[in-house]
Amino acid sequence: MLRLLIFSSTVYGQEHLYNYTFFTNSHMGGNYFFSKTSFQSPSFIKNERDRLPVSVKIFHTPGNALKLEYVNGKKGNWTASICRENLRGQDHFKSVQSFAFSVFIASVNTSQKEYPSYQLMKLKVNHFILYRFMVITEICG
């Protein structure tokens, strides 16, 4: 019995390491709570109460996806932001090796110049750190 107590005192618990994700699936339909949209006419971004709508018809993985439907107007502007949901107890993450996402382009007439630009930012004590990354376009059909 004494040996068992001594052995058990040297065993350490290890918390599960989580994947660092921004969006997997929305828990609810309608709009995605952890998003924000804005636009200045004549540009437009489809939104529901200033949030990105959730699509249950077109998605990359089963469940749903965020719908990014927009119009680029001359001298107009639109933005969409997605924030990472902080979940209690998820504070140990696997080392990040890459950032990946899929974009479905519904119109075959859309040129690459019309694609939106993407930025990845991290809030760090009252300022943002901007991460630039390369967009690799893959046409699936």
Mean pLDDT across the residues is 77
Q: Main sheet, how many strands, which sense, barrel?
A: 2 strands, antiparallel
How far do the termini sit from each other? 66 Å
Query: Strand order across the biggest sheet?
Result: 1-6
- Shape, per Cα inertia axes: globular
Sequence of secondary-structure elements: HEEEEEEEE
The overall strand count is 8
Return Rg in Å: 21 Å
Q: Structural class, please?
A: mainly beta
The helix fraction, in percent, is under 10%
Number of helices: 1
Low-confidence stretches: none
- The fraction of residues in strands falls at 15-25%
Task: Describe the structure in your own words.
The chain has a two-stranded antiparallel sheet with strand order 1-6. The chain is globular, with a radius of gyration of 21 Å. The model has no long low-confidence stretch (mean pLDDT 77). Strand 7 (120-124) and strand 8 form a beta hairpin. The chain has one helix and eight strands. With 141 residues, it is mainly beta. It has one helix spanning 2-8; strands at residues 35-40, 44-45, 54-55, 65-66, 70-71, 77-82, 120-124, 127-131.
